[in-house]
Amino acid sequence: MNSKRCAVGTMNLSSNIYDFQYRLRRFLIGRLYGFSRRADAAPVNAETFRPRKVLFVLTGLLGDSIMSAPVLVEARRLWPEAHLVLLGQSRHEELFAACPVIDEFYRFDADPFSLRQSGAVKDLQKWLDAQNFDLAAILLGDNTAPLLARAKIPVRVGVRGMPLEACLTHRYDIGGPRDWTARERLNALRCLGYEIKDSLPQLWVADEARRGAREKLFRLGLSAGEKYVALHPFGSEPRKWWSVERIAPLAARLRARYNLKTVLIGGREKVSLAGESENIVNTTGELSVGELLAVIENSLLVVTTDSGPFHIAAALNKPIIGLFRAVRPGYARIYPQTSVVFGENEACLSNCRWDFCQTDPCRQMQGISVEKVLEMINDECGMMN
């Protein structure tokens, strides 16, 4: 037998077994709480409820996390004397480092259902048990629900319909993952009886991050005070990227027409560009999350796909050129400062299943030309004229 094939088969079997036990444990714990729980907690009296200590769980993707930020702001307005704690991953600590409404941050980079990270999970459970939270709301991170229940936090808020729903005392609706925005996450407070107006996300940039970003941009070729466009052509999966081959032509046109450099931003998508020139400052893989915020904050314009930087730019109130698939027309316009360039493809319009594209890269994203992007910049962004 081929040894390489045998090794791959063993790895796949091991992975499948691990995935099966992972899903099974989530299912069984959800059912266990479903069979044993008492009646749901009585409705919170919004007029008299004054929590002393409140926990928010936020452990998802950056874009989704930013759309959850209005909940934190509203919580501070509702409970000005409460001690607000955010439980999140390292990137969330950086994302909200300058947030004035958060009093404390607990970093948790593990998965509560991971057997390999059981030590970190036990540490989190001990910490939760000792905190005496009056309320815990899961904005992103459904797997923490059993930990909150074991800590006997009296008010536990989370998404209705998720597998661990039985661990909650109060539930809110978010609709489908294709459509939800900040409006739906604010339901985490509305389900407690509060009347909350819709609001857009906002972010804050730390001075230390600004200094770090300036130093890195200068080292990478951007002169002090030089104006630039921030470009993020990447996505959560490579098939959702805009064409990397179009970065250099777009940068050249921006330099020739507007005398602007292009700062290429990206995290783990670190790329080495063919045709890289003095028109491009390539920061991919170089910036912390805080520094990414600072780079976007100081840009004249952000050209980005449906990704974390799209939401960062909106939360920092920057003009945006959004590069989107035509199957997300409504979502592409959730922020008023966005001008959208849609990729089009006849086959996609009739057969696309949104996140189940079978081509790599996406035909719709590849249908967005440099000329279309430049036309949008010229026609719809007056500040560029």
Explain what the structure shows.
It contains 15 helices and twelve strands. The strands form two sheets. A six-stranded parallel sheet has the order 3-2-1-4-5-6. The protein is globular and about 65 Å long. It is an alpha/beta fold and 385 residues long. Helices cover 38% and strands 15% of the residues.
Give the total of beta strands. Answer: 12
- Would you tell me the overall average pLDDT? 86
Order of helices and strands: HEHHEHEHEHEEHHHEHEEHEHEEHHH
The percent range for helix content is 25-40%
User: If strands are numbered along the chain, what order do they take across the biggest sheet?
Assistant: 3-2-1-4-5-6
Shape: globular
Largest sheet: 6 strands, parallel
What structural category characterises the helix and strand content?
A: alpha/beta
Estimate the strand proportion. 15-25%
* Parts with pLDDT < 50 across at least 5 consecutive residues: none
Figure out the total of helices.
15
Using only C-alpha atoms, the radius of gyration works out to: 23 Å
Distance between the termini: 66 Å
